[in-house]
Amino acid sequence: MHPSVYRAKVEKQKGRHNSVTVEVFLQGGAPWGFTLKGGLEHGEPLIISKVEEGGKADLLTSKLQVGDEVININNVELSGYRQEAITLVKGSYKTLKLLIRRYEIWSR
Amino acid sequence: MMSQMKSTTVSHVQSHTMTQVEETMHYNHNYESEMEEYMMQEEDWDRDLLLDPAWEKQQRKTFTAWCNSHLRKAGTQIENIEDDFRNGLKLMLLLEVISGERLPKPDQGKMRFHKIANVNKALDYISSKGVKLVSIGAEEIVDGNVKMTLGMIWTIILRFAIHDISVEETSAKEGLLLWCQRKTAPYKNVNVQNFHTSWKDGLALCALIHRHRPDLIDYSKLRKDDALYNLNLALDIAEKELDIPKMLDPEDIVNTPKPDQRALMTYVSCFYHAFAGAEQAEMAANRICKILAVNQENEKSMAEYERLASELLQWIKRTIPWLENRSSEKTMQAMQQKLEDFRDYRRLHKPPKIQEKCQLEINFNTLQTKLRISNRPAFMPSEGKMVSDIAGAWQRLEQAEKGYEEWLQTEIRRLERLDHLAEKFRQKATTYEMWSHGKDYTLMQKDYESASLTEVRALLRKHEAFESDLAAHQDRVEQIAAIAQELNELDYHNAAEINARCQKICDQWDNFGTLTQKRREALERAEKLQETIDQLFLEFAKRAAPFKNWMEGAMEDLQDMFIVHSIEEIQSLIAAHEQFKATLPEADSEKQAILGILNEVQKITQSYNISSTVSNPYSMISRDEINAKWDKVKQLVPQRDAALQEELVRQHGNERLRRQFASQANVIGPWIQRKMEEIAQSSIEMTGTLEDQMNQLKQLEEVIINYKPNVDKLEGDHQLIQEALIFDNKHTNYTMEHIRVGWEMLLTTIARSMNEIETQILTRDAKGITQQQMNEFRSSFSHFDRKKNGAMEPDDLRACLISMGFDLGEAEFARIMNLVDPNNTGLVSFQSFISFMTRETAETDTADQVVASFRILAGDKPYILAEELRRELPSDQAEYCIASMPPYRGPNAVPGALDYVSFSTALYGESDL
């Protein structure tokens, strides 16, 4: 799918919920302590599905959270493919800058 | 001494006033004063003892002649004036002659005192005639005193001959003078101013004679300077023709410058008496003529008056009846003509009469005045023509007039009113007649006989309206009658016609009243009947409709197609039918009653002669309809009986089928149930290995399969039941469907269970889960599967995980849910649960590991080739990879290079970083 379409689909999936954009700065190198899920390969948004307890992502003052959508890695705007994101992350040496979109979570 | 006396030349002397000419010697003309004057003269003379001898002579002659002219009548004479009166006898005689009165008897005797007494008698007489005898005493006369005697004689002459002379209210001397002047006025050569010088030429005397007796003297021949001749002539003629003795001596007169006025006065007075007498006679004759003339005139006036009065009275007499005629005319024009005539009368005819009356009055008054001043008795008009009569008649005329005018006005007004009233009457009568025309005909209509209730009611309303209209017209009829009444009272000339019309109207009115009343009664009666009928119809409608409905319902019910599925049903139908049959008698009587109503209506219409085509406005249901339906009902009843019985038989048959089925089903159903339980049981039980479980299940399976024929048989029975259209079966709770479904379920369950066991075996083998673990998982799952349907709900899962020590936040739980229930079914199967659990506790393959594995296969290349896949993997898996892997587009790409990295990551939903 064309990235812009994907983004539109994402927004549709997510609905009209308020979101904030958060910049997350990780340091120290891999492993970063989070798991990415989804991606354009699956027709899904790129989501943080797991944050390892005690991992670098977890020890930030402004933590990464499960459900955060990654939209930008190291000032590179993502196309949406997980492979791309993985590549970008693996390409980071000592520092990793993520731009994530966080939606309001509603209780079940 | 000549005295100048100026006399007045006034022609109408009314008084004694005369102008006096003041001269040295003049004399008053007043008689009294003259007497005094004479006396004064005498006294003067007495004092002087002078007597003009000429005068004495003249006087003596004249006086003597005068006395003798009178004494002659007594048959005696005197010779000597101073002697012959000494004894007083002739004096007394003279007085008697000239006065015409008797003196007292003279004293007969010769003695002095007798003479004095006689003279005194005479003197007394003279003084009794109003003469003041001043200083004349009887002794002087007896003694023969000439002066005294002459004076006395002059006194007598003055008193008896001159004093009474009255000429135009001038008396005595002045009168005499005036008379002379008057008479001599035509004679131009005579100018009498006094009694002395004016007479000297004698013309005055002649003129006097000529004036009265022109035959005696030819005056034209006389000459002024021939005084003596004139005098003589006059004296002669006077003596011969006039019986006046000569008292004067013409020579004395001519020769004396101023003749004695007394003598002249005496002589002239005789002329006066002579002529005046004649004159008096003439005057008397004149007076008589005048009087007669006046009389004649008066009489003429009287006659004229009488005539005019008579005419006027006659006119009045004619006119009054005309004015008093109060016969009225019929028409206003005639009356107005009368008024016009009256106006003419007032304008043209009466005024001249007023004039006449006025004239009459004037004439009368003039006449009366004339009569009065001429000392005649007042005019007494003849009977009925007196002023009062005329006035009275005129008054009556005027009254009649007034009355007439008033009457005319009244009459005209009356006629006007009558005309107006008559017109009003005609108008109102016409209006009324127009209104009433044809109404009696309408009132007598019998239109209510064939009318319906509403029509009758409408007629009643209409009639009510008519009644109020009638009432409204009551006023008008009364008005008409009132006008007719008034016309009668006012004596309208054509009252008969009016009355006839009025009568007709009133009769018609009364008739209306009667007719109206009758119609009202008839209408009300008709209404009543119609109402009764209407009531009956209504009742009929009220009863017939439900009855009809009942009948129709009954018919419907009786023909009702019933479908019953049980004996009870048919039996209840039969019972209902019986019940229905029981109601028939009651229905029948109801029918009779309803039809009875119609009979009632018919009776009424027949007996009251109302149109029998009257239809029921409330209902269309006819007698025939009711009867027809009833018959139908009766007909249907046995039909139904038959049908019901038939059905009953059928139902019994069905019941048998049911029982058959039921007995079968009641066996099979529980059997299936048991078997299900057995299966479930084996799933739940943890004893033995999975293989054992599998065997168990296999055995069960066989049993089940062997049982099939029973089910088939049941199907057969079921077929029959279906064909018999039996839909329920209270003998069993199991329907064929139940059984079928149960059977299917059984088969499915057994298969699934077996499958599950297989899967578990696989999983166990794959994951290396021990049987114990598996049992643990199994028991947890079973425990939290609250609903025991082989799957967990999210809450169950949550509880389960918590019990296993998982501390879950919402996000984490959500992730887990996503894993175990990716399809969002809301249920977690045991398989997923196992998968999840095993994954959590076991090493998981990550995408990286797969990638690593592929790299090995690819010989450390970033891409892999199809032949490599085919070489290393089983063929179908290899083909799958070849088909699914995207082409490798990285550096050093060769044709046919496949990207195993993206494929791998795609295999896994996530990547750990």
UniProtKB/TrEMBL annotation, chain A:
PDZ domain segment(s): 19-104
Organism lineage: Eukaryota, Metazoa, Chordata, Craniata, Vertebrata
Keyword set includes Protein biosynthesis: no
Any single GO CC term annotated in Swiss-Prot or TrEMBL for this entry: cortical actin cytoskeleton
Entry keywords, A to Z: Actin-binding, Cytoplasm, Cytoskeleton, Developmental protein, Phosphoprotein
Pfam families xrefs: PDZ
Gene Ontology MF terms in the entry: actin filament binding
SMART domains listed in its UniProt record: PDZ (SM00228)
Listed name of the protein: PDZ domain-containing protein
